[in-house]
Amino acid sequence: MRIYQFGKDSKLLDGCKKIEKEVEELREIYISSLGQHIGNIILKAKKKEFESKLEEIRKKIETFKKEAKENIKAEFKQSKKSLIEVLRPRIVKNPPSSLIGKISGGKPTNEQAEMYLEDRLNKVIPNASQFIKNMELICNFKDVTHEMLKNSDFQKAVRKVYPYEEWKNLLKKARPFN
After folding, report:
1. Label partner for 96 (CA 20 to 30 A): which of 76, 148, 151, 170?
2. What is the pLDDT of residue 174?
3. Distance CA 161, CA 156 (A)
4. pLDDT tens across 100-113, in order?
5. Are residues 16 and 58 in the same domain?
6. Could you tell me if 131 and 157 lie in one domain?
7. CB atoms within 10 A of CB 7
8. What interhelical angle do 110-124 and 47-93 show, nearest 10?
9. How many whole angstroms separate alpha carbon 78 and alpha carbon 11?
10. Do both 168 and 133 map to the same domain?
């Protein structure tokens, strides 16, 4: 799933792609899918290493968010300016009733049309902080239960994704209740 939707010349695109690639590589190295019904799994012995690399990516995301905020502000500002330039003559020529009721004359001036458009656009164009506040990397861990360890489908799936591990004593070594 892509986490961005920017134009091909956007300054943000490269940063998003780099982080997305790092997350994909981390998943590829450490996470194994046991199928849709069971979910994903990581070896307990690799969890700390995985979490360390995950934290590195989270730091990069925080740095990216700071840079992105400024770039997004600039892009929103330029977009708003362009929209105002395009729409101002139309508003002056055919003003909406919501503007007519707020001015003393019958037709708005260029300045009034611009102020009206800026006010309306400020209501629909998000604040850069709002736009990036949910950029985060979430990882939830869930324990394997004793019932799962006894499940033959689970055992087959684990053996398939970790063929180099010794699974003969899987139930003996497992201590589901610590």
Report:
1. 76
2. 56
3. 9
4. 999 998 899 999 99
5. yes
6. no
7. 9
8. 150
9. 14
10. no
**CB contact set of 20 (below 8 Å; sequence gap of 6+):** 2, 3, 4
Domain coverage including residue 158: 145-178
pTM of the model: 0.68
Say if 130 falls within a structural domain. Answer: yes
* Tokens (6 digits) for 1: 């799933």
> Structural domain tally of the chain?
2
Q: Are 40 and 29 in contact (CB under 8 A)?
A: no
Residue 4 lies in a domain: no
What is the rounded CA–CA span in Å between residue 178 and residue 172?
14
Instruction: Give the number of other CB atoms < 10 A from CB of residue 158.
Output: 22
Bridge partners, 41 (sequence order)? 32
Measured distance CA(88)–CA(111) in Å, rounded: 9
Q: Are residues 166 and 106 in the same domain?
A: no
pLDDT over threshold 50, residue 3: no
Pairing of strands 40-41, 32-33: antiparallel
User: Alpha helix locations (H) across the chain?
Assistant: 11-30, 47-93, 97-100, 110-124, 128-132, 146-150, 152-161, 170-173
Report residue 40 as tokens: 């994903």
Phi then psi for residue 106, to 5 deg, are -80, -35
Question: How many whole angstroms separate alpha carbon 36 and alpha carbon 105?
Answer: 65
Looking at the structure, tell me whether residues 123 and 40 fall in a common domain: yes
The reply to whether 5 falls in a domain is no
Place of tokens 């239960």: 145
Two tokens at 133? 């506040």
